[in-house]
Design goal:
Helices cover 38% and strands 13% of the residues. The relative contact order is 0.06. The chain is built from 22 helices and 20 strands.
Length: 672
């Protein structure tokens, strides 16, 4: 009765259905607390499938007329009475139900200053709910701007979104609000590294690269096909007409952009726009980029056919050479010269090298103006030429359901077609991918809940805690942290004044926020070590102070008092968690090292301070690295002097993380 889940065998009814105990009624997502007490049900909300609205501005959404009428029904009825179209609410309701012509006129006036909130589940972070201006459209689908898809993680393959109407006038967001689409989304662009939340769709990336490769033979007024008129051997250099057309869309302060605009360059361009013209101006700039992208993508007629995918001429030769080498390894194993593990590792190494060689051959086999190459160069294909390797080269090695790499590769590609056996082998990887995705989505959601639980009381409670403590950041930390000196320093508050080491001139005053411009001056002056305030050393009694936290990564500028930075931090870790692989399959000489925990389980290990499963061997002395084979066993030696030498036996499935001849200081990870 109290808890039916703790017993060895749960008490059940005749139909084998478990009886619900009191604890079952309370716990979990469907329990009394989370479903009935914390769960919300609201009036004035709707739900529909989303489709692309290329004609919309960044802060607009297309709402079906009938849905909008139902959502704004009370406002419409009140306005009908005010404008003397109806004598009372009852007759106004009849007018709305009949959908009289005057109802639509009233609705048009109401939606002008009445934005709506759009939400897509799962709402993993703050960008999952944004406010939009309403545009009435025909049909039954909600239209959204193509550039806000990344924030919602939405696509147009049947996704649904919910729409909510803020009901009370105080919540109607009549002034430029914090939750307005461009205020929420564009604000992520305070630095090029953060310029990813409004992403250009693949088609637009492709068309921008393609258009900017056009020849100056075309004048801007001519109606010729810019994308096709390319100079021979132009090697991706920008040229006249397309650059003139592209620069016409920018404000005077941002001209002249004279580069080929691939995915990375577009991010930098939008980040620059944010710094020059602010949020609203940037919204206009990205809208214009979208328009020119769609226009020339349509006009170029860029498309691919099966004949555009060419198989490299030397593919068979590469595969034949590897097959000979693999047969030699097999022969050595049969003679007892190598172990089964060594044979497996060598076979996987040989096939991995062959796969990389074929990838290079595939890249060279496409003509410079081939539609497939244009798409790969633009950043429109995920992973550059790697997907093209599967189309025109070979699929390569696959992992079985347990995660072990099958040493029998798929040598065919999709252009030639797979044999029955190859098709069967490839189903392993596909099925495991789907299973992993389903599992890690639930795991990432649970991790986010736990992180929010511990971090929710970390709030900015004061401007300055008055501490003199801080941390030193140095320019040589990139190898250890994975972040550049600029990424670590910009957005921090200087704990002490930063001066030019040569002239003594103050670049950044104490307690001043370090900006990109200040960092550029520091770099030019040769400053490579700074003392900054840090949340780790904050002296605030409750939560954090603004000076120790630094820049508001969502909006730019110093963080404001009252901001729930703990929840933001938890969501920022949880939201990309679903994209992390549960386990990384190394296909090089590290085949078999799949017990090394990576991705989401590794993050859980770090947060919960668990002992890691895999062990890394660390050098005890400073010395030179030498790798040798003694009695069939790989041995890694760290030689300090002729007398002092440390030997480490390396198991077959491990990978050396240091190279032969490299100097390894004490504490260096040697292999894992």
């Amino acid at each position: 009765m109290i808890d039916n889940s703790q017993r060895g065998k749960a008490v059940s009814q005749r139909g084998q259905r478990k009886l619900k105990s009191l604890s079952d009624l309370l716990k979990g997502k469907q329990g009394r607390f989370r479903r009935n007490l914390l769960g919300k049900r609201v009036d004035y909300s709707g739900r529909s499938v989303i489709v692309v609205g290329p004609q919309l501005k960044l802060n607009q959404c297309g709402l079906p007329k009938q849905m909008a009428l139902e959502l704004f029904k009370p406002f419409v009825m009140r306005k009908l009475v005010e404008n003397n179209f109806a004598h009372n609410i009852k007759s106004a309701k009849r007018l709305v139900d009949r959908m009289s012509p005057e109802v639509w006129d009233v609705l048009e006036t109401i939606i002008k200053d009445h934005p709506v909130l759009l939400n897509r589940a799962p709402t993993l972070h703050r960008l999952g709910i944004q406010a939009f201006e309403v545009i009435l459209v025909e049909g039954s689908a909600i239209q959204i701007h193509p550039l806000v898809c990344a924030a919602f993680n939405a696509d147009f393959d049947g996704d649904q979104m919910a729409v909510h109407v803020p009901r009370r006038p105080a919540n109607r967001l009549s002034n430029p609000p914090k939750i307005w689409c461009w205020a929420v989304t564009i604000s992520r662009w305070t630095a090029p590294t953060n310029a990813a939340k409004v992403k250009f769709s693949r088609r637009r990336k492709k068309s921008r690269w393609h258009t900017s490769s056009a020849s100056s033979n075309c004048t801007p007024k001519s109606n010729c096909n810019l994308a096709r008129a390319r100079k021979k051997n132009s090697s991706r250099r920008p040229s006249g007409a397309s650059c003139v057309l592209f620069n016409e869309i920018f404000p005077e302060e941002m001209r002249f952009v004279n580069d080929v605009q691939d995915k990375k360059k577009l991010k930098e361009l939008v980040a620059r726009a944010y710094q020059v013209v602010g949020s609203e101006g940037t919204a206009e700039v990205v809208d214009r980029i979208k328009e020119i992208g769609f226009k020339y993508a349509t006009r170029s007629g860029l498309t691919i056919a099966i004949d555009d995918i060419t198989v490299p001429a030397n593919k068979e030769e590469i595969i034949h050479n590897v097959e000979v080498s693999v047969a030699e390894v097999e022969k050595q194993y049969r003679r007892g010269l190598i172990t089964e593990d060594e044979q497996y590792v060598k076979t996987v190494e040989l096939w991995t090298e062959a796969t990389e060689e074929i990838t290079d051959a595939v890249a060279k086999s496409f003509a410079q103006d081939s539609p497939v190459r244009v798409m790969a160069n633009s950043g429109a294909t995920k992973g550059g030429f790697t997907p093209l390797r599967q189309l025109a080269g070979m699929r390569g090695l696959m992992a079985d359901p347990a995660g072990r790499i099958i040493p029998l590769p798929i040598t065919s590609n999709f252009r030639e077609g797979l044999t029955a056996l190859e098709y069967f082998i490839s189903t392993h990887g596909a099925r495991k991918g789907l299973a992993d995705t389903a599992l890690r989505t639930a795991d990432a959601g649970y991790l986010t809940r736990r992180l929010v639980d511990v971090a929710q009381d970390v709030i900015i409670n004061e401007d300055d805690c008055g501490t003199h403590s801080g941390i030193w950041l140095s320019g040589d930390s990139k190898e250890r942290t994975g972040e550049s000196f600029e990424e670590r320093v910009v957005g921090r508050v200087a704990a002490s004044a930063i001066a030019n080491p040569k002239t003594g001139e103050i670049i950044v005053n104490a307690l001043e926020l370090i900006t990109e411009q200040m960092f550029a001056q520091m770099k030019a002056a040769g400053v490579d070590r700074v003392f900054v305030r840090s949340p780790l050393t904050c002296g605030a009694r409750h939560g954090l102070c603004a000076k120790c936290y630094g820049r508001d990564l969502a909006r730019g500028g110093l963080i404001r008092i009252g901001e729930a930075v703990g929840v933001i931090a938890a969501q920022s870790i949880g939201e990309p968690g679903t994209q992390l692989t549960l386990r990384t399959f190394h296909t090089g000489g590290v085949a078999g090292a799949e017990d090394i925990t990576t991705g989401l389980p590794r993050i859980e290990e770090l947060f919960e301070s668990r002992d890691p499963k895999g062990q890394s061997i660390i050098s005890d002395i400073d010395g030179q690295v030498e790798i040798a084979i003694e009695d069939g066993q790989r041995v890694l030696e760290v030689v300090a002097t002729k007398i002092e030498t440390d030997d480490y036996e390396m198991p077959t499935h491990t990978k050396a993380l240091v190279k032969e001849g490299e100097f390894a200081p004490t504490g260096t990870v040697l292999y894992q």
